[in-house]
Design brief:
Strand order of the largest sheet: 11-10-16-15-14
Largest sheet: 5 strands, antiparallel
CATH architecture of the largest domain: 3-Layer(aba) Sandwich
Shape: globular
CATH class of the largest domain: Alpha Beta
Number of helices: 16
Distance between the termini: 89 Å
Number of strands: 16
Structural class: alpha+beta
Radius of gyration: 34 Å
CATH topology of the largest domain: Beta-lactamase
């Protein structure tokens, strides 16, 4: 024990009056008169030692204090292997996922049959805590969100067991219960669908809509029907493998409708615009993943929702993207609202600007001595970032919510992601948020709405069913709206959105290029308005907005020359 040395006399022990007394040859410290202390001190030491020993024994028995080794710490390599397995399974790379297990052939067969047999597409598998077992195994918990096509999402919890092999490597210790805790050699899952033709769904003019005629509406029509109180229903059931007897229901989807089966569901969609939007993506997106939304400016009614590919995830309405420079509509609004800048003010546009990291313009362009209007029309990142001190840390988010409705709960009529503008965590992130990067998140639905609000001054919650939402916003001042319209118009006539320059009428636009990662091509963005219609398009890995998303929007507006009634 570290505090026992002074009791045995090794070294000096000063008192409160002066220098310490020197021990005699036997290690005893004499008092001031030179007398040796009484011999009962060793008994105190022995007694103290016994007390400590007894206490230590009690502590050891109770597994307390320094004698408790604590829980075993999971090997990080095991956790890494579990996460790799889940990532491959999530991405549909079944053979790669199975190769990480102790029984690859069986694992691949089961993973494929589980997802295909239950019509699961695009699962989300989120790893949780890791725990080390007494036998040397490691278990990593995970949450599974399994979207069942046209029905809904089945969510449950399970765990990945891992065992160290003779060669020191970790493998997933394959078991059926890994896939789902109730999956076993005697019980399996079965998907039961309740066949229902469902109600007819019409566009704004009473024209029937179908997934055959408009492929992008395939995933949306059941959601619209479901939102109207009808739609497909089904269940995931646990059944006996041998007899087929139902042992229980794990998930139920859909509900019965109070609507008469022969009563159609009306939508705000326009068959002409929907068809043109799908054809524009097919013709101009170059086979890349892309999405587009067109809506009416004066009431927020959605005219078209198109995705490429047309089946599966609805990236147009539910996607989460950095909107890139199209977000400068919001940033510019924040600056204009407080008079922090005017279109004719000089705001230099250098090639680079460092704020924790180096920011640059597309193709490292620069415009020395440029006005703010020039910065907007050429989409100068460094100029906008240089104005970051003109707005408060929370101000972009406040403006986005107060005037544009971004981040509020929208009642679109189909599942939607309604945007997020978190408060920046540092100056670098604030700089990024000024140009629609960092943690700012949006999608074509949000950016079409932002465009409509910017050029009209009033937010109208987007809807596909005509139902008004309960969002609360404040109109933009008329002067700000006039400046935004001038800036977006100049972007078409003299800036990066020149792809629309040959279209007749009052057409305005804003381009955007959004970084995804250091080793992936940028996403291309393009937003525009013409008459009473606002459009937003994103092309993943499109490199630039003007070069990838711009032609899509040009194709659409050129094909449908008239605004819908």
């Amino acid at each position: 024990m570290t505090d026992a040395a002074p009791l045995t006399g090794h070294g000096h022990r000063p008192d409160g009056d002066g220098p310490g007394r020197i021990p005699d040859g036997q290690g005893h410290i004499p008092d001031r008169q030179g007398r040796r202390p009484a011999r009962k001190a060793p008994r105190v030491v022995i007694a103290a030692g016994l007390a400590l020993a007894v206490a230590a024994g009690i502590a050891y028995a109770a597994e307390l204090g320094p004698f408790d080794p604590g829980p075993a710490v999971p090997d990080p390599e095991a956790t890494k292997q579990a996460r790799a397995f889940l990532a491959d399974w999530e991405a549909g790379r079944m053979s790669r996922a199975a190769a990480l297990t102790s029984r690859p052939e069986e694992a691949e067969r089961v993973l494929n049959s589980f997802t295909a047999g239950l019509d699961i597409s695009g699962p989300t598998l989120t790893a949780g805590a890791a725990e080390a077992g007494e036998d040397g195994t490691v278990t990593v918990a995970f949450t599974a969100k399994m979207p069942v096509t046209e029905l809904g999402t089945w969510t449950y919890a399970s765990a990945v067991p891992l065992r160290k092999q003779d060669d020191g490597a970790w493998k997933v210790d394959w078991a059926l219960s890994l896939v789902h805790p109730k999956l076993s050699g005697t019980e399996k899952f079965r998907l039961e669908r309740e066949e229902s033709a469902g109600p007819e769904i019409n566009d704004r003019h009473g024209n029937a809509l179908s997934s055959r005629a408009y492929p992008s509406l395939g995933p949306l029509l059941p959601q619209i029907a479901g939102g109207s109180g009808a739609g497909p229903r089904g269940a995931v059931q646990l059944v006996d493998r041998a007899t087929g007897e139902v042992k229980g229901t794990e998930a139920s989807f859909g509900k019965k409708s109070d609507r008469p089966a022969d009563k159609p569901v009306a939508t705000t969609l326009d068959a002409t615009w929907q068809s043109a939007a799908e054809k524009a993506l097919a013709a101009e997106a170059d086979g890349k993943d892309a999405a587009l939304v067109a809506l009416r400016i004066d009431d927020g009614e959605i005219l078209a929702v198109a995705n490429s590919p047309s089946s599966g995830f609805n990236r147009a309405v539910s996607g989460t993207y950095a909107p890139g420079s199209t977000w400068k509509l919001v940033t510019t609004s924040a600056l204009l609202l407080k008079g922090a800048v005017a279109p004719d003010d000089v705001v230099d546009c250098p090639k680079y600007l460092t704020v924790g990291k180096r920011f640059q313009n597309v193709e490292t362009s620069e415009h020395r001595g440029a006005t703010f209007k020039k910065d907007f029309t050429t989409s100068c990142n460094t100029a906008f970032i240089s104005l970051r001190d003109k707005v408060g840390d929370q101000e972009l988010g406040d403006v986005a919510g107060k005037y544009f409705g971004v981040g509020q709960k929208w009642n679109v009529g189909i599942p939607s992601y309604d945007g997020s503008v978190p408060t920046p965590r540092d100056e670098t992130e604030k700089a990024a948020s000024m140009i629609g990067q960092g943690r700012v998140q949006a999608n074509p639905l949000i950016m079409a709405s932002v465009t409509a609000t910017a050029v009209s001054g009033t937010f109208h919650q987007p809807t596909v069913t005509g139902d008004a939402g309960d969002t609360t916003t404040t109109p933009l001042p008329r002067e700000v709206v006039s400046q935004l319209r001038d800036l977006t118009r100049a972007t078409v006539t003299d800036g990066t959105a020149s792809v629309l320059a040959d279209l007749p009428g009052d057409v305005g636009a804003k381009t955007g290029t959004a970084e995804v990662s250091d080793d992936a091509p940028n996403n291309g963005w393009f937003v525009a308005y013409r008459g009473n219609v606002a459009v937003a398009c994103v092309v993943e890995k499109g490199v630039t907005g003007g070069g990838s998303a711009g032609p899509v929007v040009r194709n659409l507006l050129g094909t449908v020359p008239d605004d819908p009634s």
